[in-house]
TrEMBL record:
Superkingdom of this protein's organism: Eukaryota
Organism: Ceratitis capitata (Mediterranean fruit fly)
One BP term from GO: plasma membrane organization
Domain C2: 14-48
Membrane-related topology note: Single-pass membrane protein
GO cellular-component term (any): membrane
Protein name (database record): (Mediterranean fruit fly) hypothetical protein
Segments passing through the bilayer: 170-196
Gene3D superfamilies: C2 domain
Localisation per UniProt entry: Membrane
Positions of the UniProt region annotated as Disordered: 133-154
Keyword annotations of the record: Membrane, Repeat, Transmembrane, Transmembrane helix
Pfam family, one: C2
Length: 206
């Protein structure tokens, strides 16, 4: 397509989704936990079970030869590809990866290796403009169509902002367990001492 003396070009870029996961520290700076790169038109089908979610060469963001992939702990198994624009909706577990510093063979230089640093459960859905306008959603878990609260363990909270909950959920069970073990141990020791203290009298009575 030409316009005057200038030529106009149309360049199509792959629809790549970049995700980064950071922790939320109250005192220290936030730490990088992992990242994920997904080409929405061609990415590996996610796992339905988190136990089988491992980093593969397709999720690593780069294509490594088999020897290097084994060195980096990246599996070569391949699951079926998914086109989100054709399937419309996908949900499952995806592996997160990051750069991990390791000592090289000469023990003097550090080298960065790409390894799996975690897992994330995602639900991806493609909507048309009309569908998106008729079904608006809020940011995060804000209405409308708010996301459901995640299923987190009872101990998944910040102990600095919830000291009473930290004592009740973390410290109290440890204290109760310690007291039970201490009480049982004291009873066993008392029975043994009582038995051996009465043993000479029983022997003399015989």
């Amino acid at each position: 397509m030409k316009s005057g003396v200038l030529n106009e070009y149309e360049v199509k870029h792959p629809p790549v989704l970049y995700l980064q996961v950071w922790d939320n520290d109250l005192i220290t700076k936030d730490d990088f936990l992992g990242m994920l790169e997904l080409n929405l038109s061609n990415f590996t089908e996610p796992c339905t079970n988190r136990r089988f979610c491992t980093l593969t060469n397709d999720f690593a963001g780069i294509k490594l030869p088999e020897p290097l992939a084994r060195l980096h702990g990246i599996a070569q198994c391949r699951r079926p590809p998914v086109n989100l624009f054709a399937k419309k909706r996908v949900r499952g577990w995806f592996p997160l990866h990051g750069q991990v510093d390791q000592m090289s063979k000469d023990k003097r230089l550090k080298e960065q290796m790409r390894m799996q640093t975690g897992k994330i459960e995602l639900e991806l859905e493609i909507l048309t403009e009309a569908e998106a306008s008729s079904n608006p959603v809020g940011t995060g878990r804000n209405p409308p169509n708010a996301l459901a609260n995640p299923s987190r363990p009872d101990t998944s909270f910040n102990p600095f902002t919830n000291p009473l909950k930290a004592f009740h959920k973390v410290l109290l069970p440890v204290i109760v367990k310690g007291l039970i073990i201490l009480g049982i141990s004291a009873i066993i020791i008392l029975v043994i001492v009582q038995f051996f203290s009465n043993l000479p009298m029983k022997l003399l009575g015989l």
